[in-house]
Design brief:
The protein is elongated. The longest helix is centred in the C-terminal third of the chain and has 40 residues, at about 150-190. It has helices spanning about 5-15, 20-45, 60-70, 75-85, 85-105, 125-145, 150-190. It has about 190 residues and is mainly α.
């Protein structure tokens, strides 16, 4: 069996399954993952006088990253991967699905004249990939500590910065598509 993962095929696959019902389900799943599941997982880890997670910063140096990893202590470095590969995996899956479907639904009416617009629904997939690269790099940094490979800290930081730039685009894109659609409707109705 051959699986086609080309961008065009993946975009069409997402669009074919996109509906407002699927969006609503994905939106609820995203909210539940962020505001119920992730806090519950953190509560299971227990009290943590740890520094803020690296993935909430826009950028950091490799030295800053390893200083923060050191500040987690042995308990924090042991607990963090459990969180990263549970709540911080489920939430990105939920937001990827939510925004991929939303972008499909918003781009669909505009794509009749510009078919490549449908590929905008792949932006959340790019965010997911950057997020998973970031999570993997941070987890690996915790695993190899006290060794501090510069390249690993730099990769974590680049992944974090790329994730936040893509998130900004992902959040802005629905607004742009809605404005474009409204202006197009006004032009047609004028």
């Amino acid at each position: 069996m051959h699986i086609n993962l080309s961008p065009a095929h993946l975009s069409r696959w997402i669009d074919a399954r996109s509906s407002w019902r699927i969006f609503a389900i994905a939106f609820v799943a995203m909210i539940m993952a962020r505001y119920a599941l992730m806090p519950w997982i953190m509560a299971q880890v227990g009290e943590r006088p740890w520094p803020p997670p690296l993935d909430l910063d826009f950028a950091y140096s490799a030295n800053e990253a390893f200083a923060r990893i050191a500040a987690y202590g042995e308990q924090g470095r042991s607990a963090a991967p459990w969180f990263i590969f549970s709540g911080d995996l489920i939430y990105p899956i939920a937001y990827t699905l939510c925004f991929a479907v939303l972008l499909s639904l918003l781009a669909r009416p505009l794509a009749a004249q510009r078919p490549k617009l449908m590929r905008l629904n792949l932006l959340p997939v790019a965010v997911f990939i950057a997020d998973m690269l970031e999570n993997s790099a941070i987890t690996l940094m915790m695993q190899v500590y006290p060794t501090q490979p510069f390249w690993l800290g730099a990769m974590a930081s680049m992944s974090t910065t790329m994730k936040w730039l893509l998130v900004a685009a992902m959040l802005l894109l629905p607004v742009i598509l809605i404005i474009w659609r409204v202006l197009r409707l006004r032009k047609v109705n004028a």
